[in-house]
Amino acid sequence: TDENGNTLIAAEIGSITEKALAVVQIEPREKFQIKSKISGIVKTCFVEVGDGVRAGDALFEIAPEPTPQELINFDNRVHSSEASYLKAKADYERGEELLNEGLMSKGDLDALRESYELARIARQQAADNRELTRSGKVTGGSGVETLIRTSASGTVLSRAVNVGDPVVPLTSYQPGTELANVADMSDLIFKGTVDEIDVGKISVGMPCRIKVGALPDDIVTGRLSRIAPQAQKSEGATLFDVEIELDPEQQVVLRAGYSANADVVIREKTDIVLLPERLVLFEDDQTFVELPGLGPEAEPRKAPVELGLSDGLNVEIVSGLSEGDEVVQRPPREIS
């Protein structure tokens, strides 16, 4: 440092990266909800959070919990359908006798047979409905039961119900109670957002370096796979949704929900001459640096330089300086 407070900073060889920041979160690519198609209460939970399941595995058993009025109504329907069935059966048997005696036509007997068959089906349906409501399953050929099974393989991410919780069924007019979430944890993806200032600089396929908050010592790499065509507004900021595919064969244990920051690498250069950008002077669309004077008491002299890539802190010197060249750094101005 000289008597004026000036110091000398040497240009160095290094690397520089132009990048865009994406705020992301780890999510499974495929995730689905488990819901019930029947109402009742949870009788048994067969899985815990973190368990692996295969397609068709039973996750829950739902026990029907009908109201007293519903039980009475089902009993009445069984009795009513039984009476209708017995009458239709008697009419059909009487019709057969009249046909043999020549007192009834074949067409009239066919009508009685149809009524008899419909009454038999209605009786069976009423009995099945009552059995399903009372015991939770039908022992006949239909095989209806109250075991809730998963439709695909994966890992149980969350379980929203416990034994004894009430369950509302999924129908065309109501969403139903969410029982659990299942996802394929072998296929993870980073989903997040990029600010509108940077979105014009990035493109699909660019490499990404991801820093996961829960894994401070690990760097995860990937590729930008999707950029949303339309922005979203969030707390006054304009953001674009992005997705990052992980590079294969990385020995890092990732979990759904991890938050992370991803650097989308726009351009990167290595083995270049670097200088702190604060030392560059801008005058009339030209760029200069100050070099030491030629004599002991001489003032620093300006030298033109050509700039290249910048990361906001350091800048590439394309021409005008070489490695080891010293540049004058003036002391900061005092604010009065």
Strand and helix layout:
Elements: E1 7-10, E2 12-28, E3 31-35, E4 40-45, E5 52-53, E6 58-63, H1 68-100, H2 106-135, E7 147-149, E8 154-159, E9 166-167, E10 178-183, E11 188-195, H3 196-199, E12 207-212, E13 219-227, E14 232-234, E15 237-246, E16 259-276, E17 281-283, E18 286-291, E19 301-304, E20 306-310, E21 314-319, E22 326-329
Antiparallel strand pairs: 1-22, 2-11, 2-16, 3-10, 4-6, 4-9, 5-8, 6-7, 8-10, 11-15, 12-13, 12-16, 13-15, 14-15, 16-21, 17-18, 18-19, 20-21
Helix pairs in contact: 1-2
Which characteristics define this entry?
336 residues, alpha+beta, 6-stranded antiparallel beta barrel, 4-stranded antiparallel β-sheet, 3 helices, 41% strand
Describe it for me?
The chain is an alpha+beta fold and 336 residues long. Helix content is 20%, strand content 41%. It has 3 helices and 22 strands. It has helices at residues 68-100, 106-135, 196-199; strands at 7-10, 12-28, 31-35, 40-45, 52-53, 58-63, 147-149, 154-159, 166-167, 178-183, 188-195, 207-212, 219-227, 232-234, 237-246, 259-276, 281-283, 286-291, 301-304, 306-310, 314-319, 326-329. The strands form 5 sheets. Strands 2-11-15-13-12-16 form a 6-stranded antiparallel beta barrel. Strands 3-10-8-5 form a 4-stranded antiparallel beta sheet, with no helix packed on it. It has a 4-stranded antiparallel beta sheet with strand order 7-6-4-9, with no helix packed on it. Helix 1 runs antiparallel to helix 2. It is rod-shaped, with a radius of gyration of 38 Å. The model has no long low-confidence stretch (mean pLDDT 85).
